[in-house]
Amino acid sequence: MQNPAQADLIHDRSAGVARLLAIMEALRHPVHGCPWDVKQTFTSITPYTIEEAYEVVDAITREAWDELPGELGDLLLQVVFYARMAEEAGRFDFDTVVQSVCDKMVSRHPHVFGDQSNDKSPEQQKADWETLKAAERGEARVLDGVAQGLPALTRAVKLQNRAARVGFDWPETVQVLDKLLEESRELVEAKDSLGPQEMAEEFGDLMFVMANLARHLKIDPEAALRAANAKFTRRFNHIEDVLKADGRSPAESTLAEMDRIWDAAKALDKAGKL
């Protein structure tokens, strides 16, 4: 049962982060808390953290500004959840998390909080950030510190950027395109002679080169693929809508008919009418 002071704080809508911390403490109470929240571990809530981060990105992509505060709140709750579990284990608490990120921001922005000039381009600042980051971590290898849990395409780009900083990179985009064609040919030629594991490896090589092409073209491959997914969804939904108006479903249509509707959907989409 909550003590009166904690209950007042939990129901005080103006209490900000202190209220959120009190709510999490109550949820994690071993006797009076929520059984689901009490059961969770660092590992078990990791998938939810990833999901909440993507929901933030989705709201921004859709410019759903009225939804964004709620999505950011869900993501903040994940941080509070981890901090509470760490505090229970005697490792660190929420204040340690805040102090850590504040110290990092001050340390990595000497041109704002120190005596360095801030007369530099965003590109130069990004390069300086990476240099400071590497120095702080004391990385022994070039590729150390690229998080394993990143989406595969994003991690591929980060690995390639690290290698490029020490000169391991194709100087021209055309060389990446040549490699892309080579990997594509190898995949097609080997499809009847390789087993599933070897095929997956060849396909992975092809995807890695695609990530490299995106990097050379200064395209975020994750964002580009999200946009392609959204475009496919819009156009396929149009196919369903057209067929539904005729009392049918895609399963009751033919590929040729759906291709014709797709072409119409494509034209509508390009005209901004989907």
From TrEMBL:
<dbReference type="InterPro" id="IPR011551">
    <property type="entry name" value="NTP_PyrPHydrolase_MazG"/>
</dbReference>
<dbReference type="GO" id="GO:0046052">
    <property type="term" value="P:UTP catabolic process"/>
</dbReference>
<dbReference type="GO" id="GO:0046081">
    <property type="term" value="P:dUTP catabolic process"/>
</dbReference>
<feature type="domain" description="NTP pyrophosphohydrolase MazG-like">
    <location>
        <begin position="40"/>
        <end position="113"/>
    </location>
</feature>
<dbReference type="Pfam" id="PF03819">
    <property type="entry name" value="MazG"/>
</dbReference>
<dbReference type="GO" id="GO:0006203">
    <property type="term" value="P:dGTP catabolic process"/>
</dbReference>
<dbReference type="GO" id="GO:0046076">
    <property type="term" value="P:dTTP catabolic process"/>
</dbReference>
<keyword id="KW-0378">Hydrolase</keyword>
<feature type="domain" description="NTP pyrophosphohydrolase MazG-like">
    <location>
        <begin position="177"/>
        <end position="238"/>
    </location>
</feature>
<protein>
    <recommendedName>
        <fullName>Nucleoside triphosphate pyrophosphohydrolase</fullName>
        <ecNumber>3.6.1.8</ecNumber>
    </recommendedName>
</protein>
<dbReference type="InterPro" id="IPR048015">
    <property type="entry name" value="NTP-PPase_MazG-like_N"/>
</dbReference>
<dbReference type="GO" id="GO:0046047">
    <property type="term" value="P:TTP catabolic process"/>
</dbReference>
<comment type="similarity">
    <text>Belongs to the nucleoside triphosphate pyrophosphohydrolase family.</text>
</comment>
<dbReference type="GO" id="GO:0046061">
    <property type="term" value="P:dATP catabolic process"/>
</dbReference>
<dbReference type="InterPro" id="IPR048011">
    <property type="entry name" value="NTP-PPase_MazG-like_C"/>
</dbReference>
<dbReference type="GO" id="GO:0047693">
    <property type="term" value="F:ATP diphosphatase activity"/>
</dbReference>
<dbReference type="GO" id="GO:0006950">
    <property type="term" value="P:response to stress"/>
</dbReference>
<dbReference type="InterPro" id="IPR004518">
    <property type="entry name" value="MazG-like_dom"/>
</dbReference>
